[in-house]
């Protein structure tokens, strides 16, 4: 939802004139497509969750039978139906996002079985795809310009590290069920360092690009937000597994604020 909003801002077009499109896009990005991905993951991860988080609805038995699967299928169909109202761009983006959601969790692909592939799929959908879709639907289906695509791509790359942080909570279950998340592949300490580098490097490039494009104030703001993140990362790396939830509430908040600052930079520079 946040990334879609950043795309709307980056388009440089007045959202008030197309508020219905913005509202529908936010609804589609969050409570529909993203919720579908979570429902699909809950169903196909029910055996892993029985180890890591047995209190969740499916492994605890509070959602019995195949209802988890039924909800995932129904929400997929509902998402596609709503996406038709956003035109070809919105429908295509929703279809890609839903395909990746199923590919991430469901066999035979089950991208999450390898942390490099699974995290890439999530990062692309959560940040880049949503950003580009927000900018495109605001422009009536036109492709966003190169600056917007670059920022969307960079923040997607950084989000790969965010996805790695989410894997620290399930190391034991992943290892026992053969899921090669990065903490399983690399070990917790090394995966923590990799996640921090992956989150930080794209933001450094963003700062350089914003300064190069003639938005020094926005570049400085993103740089300041990154500087605080780096300080928080040093504490995270003392105990990546224990402090990942804390960093999600602090450092990741600063990361996404930087996304919005970058979107406003494009708006000030003339949007798409």
From TrEMBL:
Compartments it resides in: Membrane
Keyword terms: Cell membrane, Chlorophyll biosynthesis, Membrane, Transmembrane, Transmembrane helix
Membrane association type: Multi-pass membrane protein
GO-annotated molecular function: transferase activity, transferring alkyl or aryl (other than methyl) groups
Pfam families: UbiA
Any Gene Ontology biological process: chlorophyll biosynthetic process
GO cellular component, one term: membrane
Segments passing through the bilayer: 21-44, 65-83, 121-143, 249-269
Principal subcellular localization: membrane
InterPro entries: Chl_synth (IPR006372), Prenyltransferase_related (IPR050475), UbiA_prenyltransferase (IPR000537), UbiA_sf (IPR044878)
Name of the protein in its database record: Bacteriochlorophyll synthase 33 kDa chain
């Amino acid at each position: 939802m946040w990334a879609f909003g950043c795309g709307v801002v980056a388009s440089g077009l007045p959202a008030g004139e197309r508020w219905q499109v913005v509202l529908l896009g936010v609804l589609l990005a969050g409570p529909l497509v993203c919720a579908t991905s979570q429902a699909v993951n809950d169903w196909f991860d029910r055996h892993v969750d029985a180890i890591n988080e047995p209190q969740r609805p499916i492994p605890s038995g509070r959602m019995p039978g195949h209802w988890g699967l039924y909800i995932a299928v129904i929400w997929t169909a509902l998402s596609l139906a709503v996406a038709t109202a956003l035109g070809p761009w919105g429908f295509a983006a929703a279809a890609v996002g839903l395909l990746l959601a199923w590919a991430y969790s469901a066999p035979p692909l089950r991208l999450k079985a390898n942390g490099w592939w699974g995290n890439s799929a999530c990062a692309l959908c959560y940040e880049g795809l949503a950003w580009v879709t927000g900018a495109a639907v605001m422009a009536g289906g036109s492709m966003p310009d190169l600056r917007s695509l670059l920022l969307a791509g960079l923040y997607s790359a950084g989000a790969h590290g965010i996805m790695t942080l989410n894997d620290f909570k399930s190391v034991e279950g992943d290892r026992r069920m053969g899921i090669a998340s990065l903490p399983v592949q690399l070990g917790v300490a090394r995966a923590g360092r990799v996640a921090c580098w992956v989150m930080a490097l794209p933001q450094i490039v963003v700062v350089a690009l914003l300064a190069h494009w003639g938005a020094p104030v926005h570049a400085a703001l993103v740089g300041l937000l990154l500087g605080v993140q780096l300080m928080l990362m040093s504490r995270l790396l003392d105990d990546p597994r224990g402090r990942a939830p804390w960093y999600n509430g602090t450092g990741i908040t600063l990361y996404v604020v930087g996304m919005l600052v970058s979107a406003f930079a494009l708006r000030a520079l003339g949007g798409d």
